[in-house]
Design a protein that fits this description.
Layout: E1 5-9, H1 34-45, E2 52-55, H2 65-75, E3 82-84, H3 106-109, E4 123-128, E5 131-135, E6 139-141, E7 147-149, H4 153-165, E8 170-174, H5 200-209, E9 214-217, E10 224-228, E11 231-235, E12 245-253, E13 259-267, H6 277-287, H7 290-298, H8 306-312, H9 319-325, H10 337-344, E14 362-366
Parallel strand pairs: 1-2, 2-3, 5-8, 8-9, 9-11
Antiparallel strand pairs: 1-12, 4-5, 6-7, 10-11, 12-13, 13-14
């Protein structure tokens, strides 16, 4: 089947009405701009004749019912279909409390946006002729109430059945937590693994067996495209965090029947009151980076002494901002050789060590 579709991805919106904004001095992202930034994106997208829009989680600041209410009303006004999945911030607790909704409440807010069965936290929908979307819930809670990224057994059984029944379609999977590593040893690193799906290998095996090529994720707040055994995990940075990105993508089929995905990234550069948004948000992130960089330096595999970490951390002030941009090459020639080599591994390189700048603008061949 010939596929030609245009769609967009906006991730980690963290919508926060002014009266709900928390004053958290350590947060990297700017929820203060969430609504005006989203409106600017919608203004752009409404001129593009989109076929659909994907929102891979963290729709709200921290699961507030008023923010979910506002967003679902705003999405219902758009001229194209929208599909969502929950992020960890959308359902921060298993049961509702005075501040946020509970896990099972989420589908009831988004019945128009994928959840035709509001009693189930995952779904599948035909979203375009020849394209089937599978929206997964990666939010689980252990016996102590701690939230983790995982697909439970009933969801995996449902997914296996859906994959077996879906034939001759391009299957697109959307889930909040990362499925393929976007950072070196992300699944093992104490700072990186919380952004990964705990049972990612199980999901990848199911998708590979079914010939699935495309996964859309969020959560990490970076622009990155990861590839593993025929599958792309396209994660999109947060709209409220530097560099304030979103993506516009086109599926097309050539004369030989090959399917291609063209990806273009766009950025919000100004909102009222924040006229030089990239400069402000990059500085905002850098000003809050020192504790995070010290943790990275003192954690495995570097395990540097605190004194050495404190000495090197200022040189890494903009490291996470540069990770978030994507397509960055890192080198710190004044660092000790083992530390220098470690940070070089975060560079945008292919398996042969050559530059591979595909995180923001790329044309990907989808293997059949």
């Amino acid at each position: 089947m010939s596929l030609n579709a245009r769609f967009a991805v906006i991730s980690d919106l963290h919508i926060a009405l002014p009266q709900t904004i928390w004053d958290i001095p350590t947060r990297f992202h700017l929820v203060e701009i969430s609504i005006p930034a989203l409106e600017l994106v919608f203004n752009h997208l409404e001129r593009l004749d989109l076929d659909f829009l994907l929102l891979p989680g963290d729709l709200t600041q921290h699961g507030e019912s008023t923010n979910h209410d506002w967003l679902q009303r705003r999405l219902s006004q758009l001229p194209y279909p929208v599909y969502v999945v929950p992020g960890n911030h959308d359902v921060p607790t298993l049961l509702p409390n005075e501040r946020s909704i509970g896990l099972k409440d989420f589908p009831h807010y988004y019945r128009q946006f994928g959840y035709d069965n509001p009693d189930q936290l995952y779904y599948t929908r035909k979203i375009f002729p020849g394209v089937q979307l599978i929206g997964l819930n990666s939010n689980q809670f252990d016996q102590t109430g701690k939230q983790r990224g995982c697909l439970d057994a009933p969801q995996l059984a449902w997914l296996e059945d859906v994959l077996a029944q879906t034939k001759d379609k391009l299957i697109v999977v959307m889930v909040h937590h990362n499925v393929i590593e976007h950072l070196p040893d992300q699944a093992k690193h104490p700072l990186g693994r919380r952004y990964m799906l705990d049972n990612a290998p199980t999901l990848l095996n199911l998708l590979k067996a079914a010939g699935v090529n495309l996964i859309f994720t969020g959560h990490l707040h970076v622009q990155d495209i990861a590839y593993h055994q025929g599958i792309y995990d396209i994660t999109t940075g947060s709209l409220v965090s530097y560099p304030h990105p979103y993506r516009v993508l086109e599926l097309r089929t050539d004369n030989l029947g090959n399917r291609w995905l063209q990806i273009e990234s766009h950025h919000i550069t100004s909102v009222p009151g924040w006229e030089n948004l990239p400069e402000i948000s990059r500085k905002w992130m850098g000003d809050r980076s020192h504790p995070f960089m010290v943790k990275l330096l003192t954690a495995p595999p570097l395990c540097l002494p605190q004194h050495d970490a404190d000495k090197l951390a200022p040189s890494l002030r903009n490291f996470w901002a540069d990770i978030a941009v994507g397509d960055t090459y890192f080198d710190f020639p004044d660092f000790p050789p083992p530390v220098r080599r470690y940070f070089q591994t975060f560079s945008a390189m292919d398996s042969n060590g050559k530059p591979a700048f595909i995180d923001n603008h790329a044309t990907l061949l989808l293997e059949s």
